[in-house]
Amino acid sequence: MTTIIDELGAHLRVGVHRYWALDWLHSTTGLDWPHCSEILRNLGAPVDEGAIAMIKNARTFWDRLEEFRRIHTNAIRLGEIDPAVGTWAYVEASELPGWLSGLDVPLMHRRKSYLVRVTPCGRPFLELDFHGFPSFRALFRVPL
User: Fold this and answer.
1) Is 40 in the same domain as 89?
2) pTM for this one?
3) What DSSP character marks residue 86?
4) Pair (13, 41) in one structural domain
């Protein structure tokens, strides 16, 4: 753990933002968010409760996206989905409320499942690009 704390201190000394440092420490060590926040506070980089919640939600979003990408990749391997250019994720509609709370999919675009990818929409912004499954027909976008 000392090596990780030393590495974290080095990141902070070169100007890494404390929010990134909190996410890095949590992802690297598996420590819970409050303990990671306490370590950062002891290193002179406090993170308030609101920011912790925001970072935790962002980490959950990206972890779930990675899980959905693995599902898509496995479905390709099993021959259930044709491969497409780019990095795609397969998401069941039932997963959307837990992944993107507050998302209200327009009635005309509701499907049982979606193919989703992250696309740039002008620096530094990203969007989630939702497509129908299995058609790949573009349906709607959600800004991140």
Assistant:
1) no
2) 0.81
3) S
4) yes
